[in-house]
Amino acid sequence: METLKEEWEVALDDLGTESAHLLDEEGVFYALDLGGTNFCVLRVQLGGKERGALYCP
């Protein structure tokens, strides 16, 4: 089974070399889903190439 980082690397390869910098991103990012009857919040902590991503429910 591939790790999440390996899956992202494969997906980014399909986008081209200009998207390769996305693996270097660091920080905490939030996504909001305001549609429908439910309100959902996603928090993702990215640690760059060395640490990958940690998803927090």
TrEMBL record:
Residues 24-50 form the Hexokinase N-terminal domain. Pfam families: Hexokinase_1. This is Hexokinase N-terminal domain-containing protein.
